[in-house]
Amino acid sequence: MAGHAVGVALDPAQEKAYVVTDSGKLYSVSLTHHVKREFVTTESLGSPGGVALDGEGKAYVTDHSGNRLVRVDLSNGTTETVVTGVQAYAVKLDTEGKTAYVTGLDGKLFAVDLGKKDTKKLIVDGLGPSTSGATLDGNGKAYTGNWNHVGNLWEVDLLADRPTKRAVTALSRQSGDIALDGAGTAYISDHWGDVLYKVDLASGAQRVAVKATGSFSALGVALDLDNGVLYVSTWEGQLWRFALRVLQSPELIEITTGV
User: N or C: which end of the chain has fewer CB within 10 A?
Assistant: First the structure.
């Protein structure tokens, strides 16, 4: 892929992954035939950091250089700016696909109403520099990390009258993107350390799950629980797939990339 593959989102029903690169490209990748296709969009996507799907033919892509969130119609490549004024890096949608939760590189988390033009609400700030990876647990909690900074794994209570944040644990590595397995474990990318590691949300314990000989600069992560696989996009423009049952074992996975 052209550029660094910074974010990935999955469409298991169509057996596709959607990957964005920091060069402003959006790709679809067949998960069965391993064929990639570049989308030709009606305008540049700027400097993406993340991508999310609404399940209705639309992709939402962050553009941190343009301080905006962009909607892409996957049927024809038409783009539309949804919200501005956000140093947008990561994006996740709620289960209804009506609200996007967007992290800003300035340490903020916003809720964006996708049904209205340029409507956002600040949820919390003070999440640290280079706030990046965000994920939702489906039960009113969001988790964020910092891709260029060793900081905390933050948990944000979205259901509180006044949403609050708490540090789950002080991370020993950078945290580019985050995926939850629904059983209390977070899988986190660290492109500086060339590893994928996991954190027990209850205890805060951390352990490297995947380590590379060569370059495996993990950036985007997306988990397909139904099929038991985790996808990782990398700085090298690659998309990797790992079986969740292997990642759940106590053994370290060591790979040789040849890069």
Answer: C
Q: Return d(Cα 176, Cα 112) in angstroms, integer.
A: 21
Question: Does position 259 have pLDDT exceeding 60, yes or no?
Answer: no
For residue 214, the tally of other CB atoms under 10 A from its CB is: 11
CA separation for the pair 148, 129 (Å, rounded): 8
Domain-embedded: residue 92: yes
Higher pLDDT, 172 or 220: 220
Which phi and psi (to 5°) does residue 245 adopt? -65, -30
pLDDT at 254: 85
52: CATH: 2.130.10.10
Mean pLDDT (the chain) is 93
Residues of the domain holding 117: 5-185
Enumerate long-range contacts of 247-253, CB under 8 Å, 24 or more apart.
247/187, 247/196, 247/198, 247/209, 247/210, 248/181, 248/185, 252/208, 252/209, 252/210, 252/211, 253/209, 253/210, 253/211
Residue 51 lies in a domain: yes
Could you tell me if 120 and 111 are in contact, meaning their C-beta atoms sit under 8 angstroms apart? yes
**What pLDDT is stored for residue 258 in this prediction?**
62
The pLDDT of residue 166 is: 93
State the total domains in the chain: 1
Contact criterion met (CB below 8 Å) for 164 and 156 = yes
Q: Mean per-residue pLDDT for 153-161?
A: 94
Query: Whats the size of the chain, residue-wise?
Result: 259
Whether the CB-CB separation of 203 and 209 falls below 8 Å is answered with: no
Question: Does residue 235 lie in a domain region?
Answer: no
